[in-house]
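Hmm, how's this folded?
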Amino acid sequence: MSSTDPTSPTQPTHADNSPDAAAPSGREDGGDDSREIADALAAVCDTMRQSCRKFMVAENVPRVIAVSKRQPVARVRAALEAGHRLFGENLVQEAEERWTPLKADCGDVELHLIGGLQTNKAARAVALFDCIQTLDRPKLARALRREMDKQNKALPLYIQVNTGAEPQKSGCLPADLPELLALSGALKLTVVGLMVIPPADEDPALHFALLKKLAERHGLTRLSMGMSGDYDVAAAMGATDVRVGTAIFGRRTS
């Protein structure tokens, strides 16, 4: 990240009680799973409260998007039995296979796409998901507009911002954000916020601060930032949504 990116000497760093250290085991033993996952969800929320107190900011408990990528269906069902209804998936095909039957059984689930989206899968994504967090280019914006018109749907969208300018990662560059927002407005797309995945080898707080500044500059209220390794930092920096998998479900299966 460039030295011109906004920073603060009081930006949080990871809490001492790393969420991965207490991650669930991922076992599949029936009814006990729902209690284990309910406890893990409660622990995630408590960790975010503690982080806010530690850094002396207003208490902020963002929405927890339970990332179910590559998790056994039994674990996902256990989360549903525990009362959780907000989930995130990275891949359209995997999500279709898992969530088509699950959504039929549980109609109040809210499912977010949090992985990169190819334009040739826009129709399937619009059909399945309740929110797409990875709008990142004009071609995709136009494809989503066409598919929403065809399916008579109006999904909320987040723009994914590549704050680290990583060539291998999806997301629009910060400098390109105004143009993409202008196009989205012209297409009458509902952009509600921004999403970021910081570089793995950099302090996530720097990227969270930049995302927050960009959102404020453009009048956007939702910030999807923070995953299992840094959601505590994200909460203290104003996240409205955190995307947490391992700290809820345990290690992913292959």
Observations:
- The chain has one domain: 23-249.
- Residues 32-54 form the longest helix (23 residues).
